[in-house]
């Protein structure tokens, strides 16, 4: 079976990621492959071929679909240096 991944927000604004088994396996494989040397991947509709294919059909009326996006690997050391405001006080930023 082909991977099926749908990323959306529901009517309450909650993020939902709906996956079939092949979609779960693909997403987990992509997440586990992230490194400092290969620090991101893109997702988008299959016909655009950005990397991880996602569906553009909502499960429910009112869902907002995310058709395009990027997942970025952000090691604590990078964030401490470049985006210290995202590191809680006392956790890796010398405070």
Q: Gist?
A:
The protein is α+β, with helices and mostly antiparallel strands and 95 residues long. It is built from two helices and six strands.
Report on the structure:
It is globular and about 45 Å long. With 95 residues, the chain is α+β, with helices and mostly antiparallel strands. Strands 2-1-5 form a 3-stranded antiparallel β-sheet. A 3-stranded mixed β-sheet has the order 4-3-6, with helices on one face. The model has no long low-confidence stretch (mean pLDDT 93). It contains 2 helices and 6 strands; from the N terminus they run E-E-H-E-E-E-E-H.
Task: Please tell me how large the radius of gyration is.
Answer: 16 Å
- Give the biggest sheet: 3 strands, antiparallel
Helix content: 10-25%
The count of helical stretches stands at 2
**Alpha-carbon distance between the two ends:** 50 Å
**Overall form:** globular
Runs in which pLDDT lies below 50 for 5 or more consecutive residues are none
Calculate the mean pLDDT score and round it. Answer: 93
How much β-strand is present in the residues?
25-35%
Q: Which structural class do you get from the secondary structure elements?
A: alpha+beta
How many extended strands? 6
Order of helices and strands: EEHEEEEH
Physical arrangement of strands within the biggest beta sheet: 2-1-5
Keywords:
single chain, 95 residues, alpha+beta, 3-stranded antiparallel β-sheet, 3-stranded mixed β-sheet, 2 helices, 6 strands, 20% helix, globular
Topology (SSEs and partners):
Blueprint: E1 5-9, E2 15-19, H1 21-32, E3 40-45, E4 51-54, E5 64-65, E6 69-72, H2 76-82
